Please model this.
Amino acid sequence: MTSPTNNPVSEEWYALRTFLLALISFFLFLGVVAAALQFQATLPAVSLVTPQPLPTLVPSSVPLDEPVLALPTITPTVFAAATPILPLTHLVQSGETLSLIANQYGLTVDSLILANNLANPDVVWAGQSLLIPGEREEEIAAAMPTTVTPILPPTAPLTATLPLTPTTLNGIPFNEIVVISPETWANIQTIYAHGQELGRDPHAFSKIGDSTIDAEHFLSRFATGPYNLGAYAFLQPTIDHFSASFARQGMAVQIGLHSWNALDPFWADKTICEPAETVIACEFRLHNPSLVLIRLGANDAGVPENFARNMRDIVTYAIAQGVIPVLGTKADRAEGSDENNTIIRQIAAEYHLPLWDFDRVAATLPQRGLDEDGIHLMAYMAHDYTQPVAFERGHALHNLTALLVLDTIRVGIMNEEG
Amino acid sequence: MKRHWLLFTVYCLLFTLLTACGGGADDDAAARTVERYLEAKVAGDADTVQALLCSTMEQDLLRETQSFSSVSDAHIENMACTKAADRDIVNCTGTIIALYGAEQTDFQLSSYAVVQEDGEWKWCGESQ
Model:
């Protein structure tokens, strides 16, 4: 057995090897330091703050095209230096207009239109990315940190169906919910003019219907509050216009009402209505409306011919009285089919009357927006249209679509702008 | 001569009596018609409604027979009808009680027009 210290060759070799290793390590260290310095020198003058992960844009349980879904605030990527100038985009939020956005950035509407090549400046939608003209990015970033966003990944167009001033409801275009053809416009203008000659109140509407439009749930909240129209705030002038009619039950809304009861004096309140006065005649005399929302059919099961005849009688009477009849379809299938809605649509077309096709919207709702009994609509007392649940409840959308009908006619016939 | 006067007096008395009795029976018949009609309407008894409905309202037969078809347990309480003197109108008091779900609806009875057709009283809607 030998010890290394006792071997002179090995000792020399060992010392030489240690020296060489130290030398190599030294040069390597120099090389790394040099490389690092060189790399640092080539870095751009822009440093990025770590971007936050993009939030989920749309809750999975909510239809994509609900306009009230306020897009979540997206944490911005803030650029620490202004050079190079990177394009900034603005993600349009629900409720914003082009002029509002321009004001936020201290720009003119024209500059936004130009920068984004907008064909129609009146049409921007929540979720749309607008290019902000790049002269004032630093000020913009400082002033609007929560709305300056990176260009969204390809998933962003999911929200592109969310209109700023909504034109759809749960994916159904307004003009398929409130169906008014050019012939209908002409016709109801004539009816309205006749009503004005008779002294009808342009600020009053009446209701004819059964328990599905009982005042407790139907429209009355718009008179008493509180409510939040959210993206539908443009309907507020219509609430103001017809303010005295929303909370009114009226003579022609009764539980169990059939189409034929509306024409039957038997069902008129004897303490208020005149002898032999029908339900509708009594209502018109007392409230003097310029239009009437007709929502019948849930109780008229299995008698389509009778239902059709009575509906014709009702609209004929209303027209003669100078009251615009608005025919509403229903969510339920109490008759075992869509038979009564078909009749309602036919009569609306036949008489050139406005159709309030709530059935189309009901088809987008869980359980058609109906309560457990399959007849009455599911209540939503909050009337908060900033909440996704509002767009899943029958009464909530029944009320909103009724407002849409009233608004359309108010603006179109009564020549009043919002 | 005296005998003739006696016969004439008896004749007049009989005439008055019969006329009075006959009119009362007629008024009762009109009131009874209305009562039967209202009961039939509330019950949805189509045959009786059809039998007691005046001809000018025949087109409303279905409306009349189905008037209360959407409510349950419809019945009339405290009904009392009388024919107005010298007018073809029957005035009724009482209340139709109907349930829709758990909610009760009351319909007050009022005045109804009646007409005679082929010697029978017919119900002809509410009076003006």
In short: Residues 1-6, 40-87, 135-163 of chain A have pLDDT under 50 and may be disordered. The longest helix of chain A spans residues 8-42. The interface with chain B takes residues 210-211, 254-258, 260-261, 263-267, 270-271, 275-276, 299, 303, 306, 310 of chain A (CB under 8 Å).
